Amino acid sequence: MTKHIVVMPGDGIGPEVVAQATQVLRVAAGKAGLPIALSEAIIGGGAYDRTGSPLPEQSLDAARKADAVLLGAVGGPKWDTLAFNLRPERGLLRLRAELDLFANLRPAAIYGDLVDASTLKREVVEGTDLMVIRELTGGIYFGEPRGPVQTAHGAGARNTMVYSEWEVERIMRVGFDIARKRRGRLCSVDKANVLEVSVMWRRIAEQVHKAHPDIVLEHLYVDNAAMQLIRSPRQFDTIVTGNLFGDILSDAAAMLTGSIGMLPSASIGERHALYEPVHGSAPDIAGQDKANPLATILSVGMMFRYTFNLPQVDEAIQAAVTDVLATHRTPDIHAAGKTLVGCREIGELVARRLADAPPIAVPAV
Ligand code: IPM
Ligand code: MG
Description:
By secondary structure, the protein is of the alpha/beta class. 40% of the residues lie in helices and 20% in strands.
C-alpha cells in the first residue's frame, strides 16, 4: 500500500522549492494515514554535469516504477550553449514523452487576498478560477520532421505541428471530464482560421462533445483567448488546447493569480503522473532563499487529488496556503502589511499550519 514517490529537484531554485514541498508532503501523508516512501533522482543540467545526459536511464527507470514524480525545475544559463538534445529542457520533455503524460492540468485560482499581487486590477482578476488543460506529448513540440533545413534562400530550420485524431480525442475526453467536475464549461482553443491542424482539432472537439451533451463547449482562436484571459478571466472555466498554445496561455494565466510562483501543475497519462510547478528554474535567485515554494507545494496537493484520490488532502493543503498568505509573503508576492519571508520559512509555516489543522477524514479503503 506504500506509495512510492520519486523526487527530482532539478536545477536553479528546484532543490529549494522541492525541499519545502516534500516537507508538506510528509505532513500531509501523515495526516491522511497514507504510507509513503520517497527517493531522489537527477534530471536537467545537474544530471548532464554528472552523467552526460539530462535524463539518465536510471532516473527514467525510477520514474517509471514510481506511483508519482515530484519535480522542481530544470535549466539555467550554464547549459544554454549545449547541443540541443543535451539541454536540460530535453530531459524534461523526454520524461513527459516516455511516461506518456499527455494531459497537463494547470489550475489558475486566486488564493486569499493575493488579488492585490496581480499586475491587473482587482475588479478584473477577483474571483478568477480556471483550469488550463494542455496537451503535453504532441503537437509542434514533438512533430517530425524537425531541425535544420536548406531553404531556397539558404540555411533555415523547421518544426512541424502535427496531431493525430486519437491524440485530440483523448485530451478532449480529459477536458470534458474535468469540466464536468468544475462548472460545466469547456473552451477549446485553436487557430482554425489559419492551421489545418486546428480545423481537425475543432472537428474532433465537436465529435467528443456529442458524448458530453451536459457540458457547454465553445471555441476560441488562440490570439483572442490570450486577449480574453487578460480582459475578463472570470469568463473561463476549463480551457483545453494544444501543447504550444497551452504553454503560452498558462504563463499568461499564471499572472492573473499574482505570480507564476503560485501555479501548480499535474501531468497525467494512463499509467504515470508527474507534478511540478509551472515556473522555471529562476537561476537569478537560486540559492538565495527568495523563491516561492507555493506552486510546488500546491502541486503536492494535486498529487493527492489525482494520483492518491484524496481531494480532501488537496483542500487541506490549499487552506493552509491561504491561511499563511494572509500574513506572510515571499518577495514575488510581497505587499504592504505582510511579513516578508523566504522560501524556507513560508514552507515551514504551511507545513506547521497543515500539521495543526483538524484531522483529515479519509474514507477507509
Ligand atoms: C513549461 C516549460 C517547459 C515547456 C520548458 C521548460 C521545456 O515552459 O512546463 O511550461 O515549454 O513545456
Ligand atoms: Mg512554459
